């Protein structure tokens, strides 16, 4: 199966083969995808990380040899934990900024360089050699605007936020809140929630429509309008600015023991 390693800061994946189509998700730098179908200037892909399918502009499809993809996936690699990280792209020495959750595999001639296909990159600064704690990672997204289908520091949705934060922590979660709720173990009482637990919220029909990251002490970080910190109790999320509850709590799950 042909595929690629995303060489772009962010690559939009759409529901239908059209620029007007809804954004389904985004690929971050260094994430792998496989080609499912090609049609009229568009490529239908399946992401390696979470199995999501959608369409990308054919002009953004950069084929990479199967062997290189295998080596990229099997190598230890580094997942960027900071909100942004600067790469230098050769030979033009242009700057490319990549977002938290992007993955780098140092397969170049020295420890600060790597290649994706024929594209060469190097890091001007040292890649962080430690993973910050979960709260530090999550707070790095504060004030990021909400974007349906987004997974990056300039636009992200609620389940994209939880997925990327846990990716940095070494835990693979599916893309949507309705899928993420199937993971982890139940937390019986909201008072027992600790940093890293996920809180899920439903609509009047009982459908899971929202997810946020518990930070302990009644705090929750979530993407609603923007990535923000709010109060969480047994009823749900209380927005102090609006002085009302905005989301109804369904369940809290412990993802990392």
UniProtKB/TrEMBL annotation:
SUPFAM superfamilies reported for this sequence: Cysteine proteinases
Ranges of residues in domain NlpC/P60: 128-256
Keyword flag Transcription: no
Molecular function, one GO term: cysteine-type peptidase activity
Keywords: Hydrolase, Protease, Thiol protease
Coiled coil residues, start to end: none
Example of a GO biological process term: proteolysis
Family of the protein in this entry: Belongs to the peptidase C40 family.
Protein name (Swiss-Prot/TrEMBL): SH3 domain-containing protein
């Amino acid at each position: 199966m042909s595929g690629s390693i995303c060489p772009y800061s962010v690559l939009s994946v759409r529901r239908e083969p059209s620029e007007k189509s809804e954004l389904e998700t985004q690929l971050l730098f260094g994430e792998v995808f496989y080609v499912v179908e090609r049609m009229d200037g568009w490529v239908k892909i399946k992401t390696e990380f979470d199995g999501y399918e959608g369409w990308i502009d054919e002009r953004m499809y950069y084929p990479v040899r199967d062997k290189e993809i295998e080596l990229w996936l099997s190598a230890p690699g580094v997942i960027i934990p900071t909100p942004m990280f600067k790469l230098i792209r050769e030979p033009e020495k242009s700057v490319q900024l990549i977002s938290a959750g992007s993955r780098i595999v140092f397969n170049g001639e020295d420890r600060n360089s790597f290649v994706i296909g024929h594209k060469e990159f190097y890091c001007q600064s040292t890649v962080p050699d430690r993973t910050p704690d979960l709260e530090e990672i999550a707070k790095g997204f504060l004030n990021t605007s909400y974007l349906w289908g987004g997974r990056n520091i300039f636009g992200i949705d609620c389940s994209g936020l939880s997925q990327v934060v846990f990716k940095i922590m070494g835990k693979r979660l599916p893309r949507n809140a309705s899928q993420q709720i199937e993971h982890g173990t139940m937390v019986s009482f909201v008072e027992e929630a600790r940093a890293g637990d996920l809180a899920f919220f439903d609509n009047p029909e009982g459908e899971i429509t929202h997810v946020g990251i518990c930070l302990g002490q009644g705090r929750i970080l979530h993407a609603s309008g923007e990535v923000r910190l709010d109060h969480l109790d047994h009823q749900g999320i209380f927005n102090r600015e609006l002085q009302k509850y905005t989301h109804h709590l369904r369940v809290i799950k412990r993802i990392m023991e």
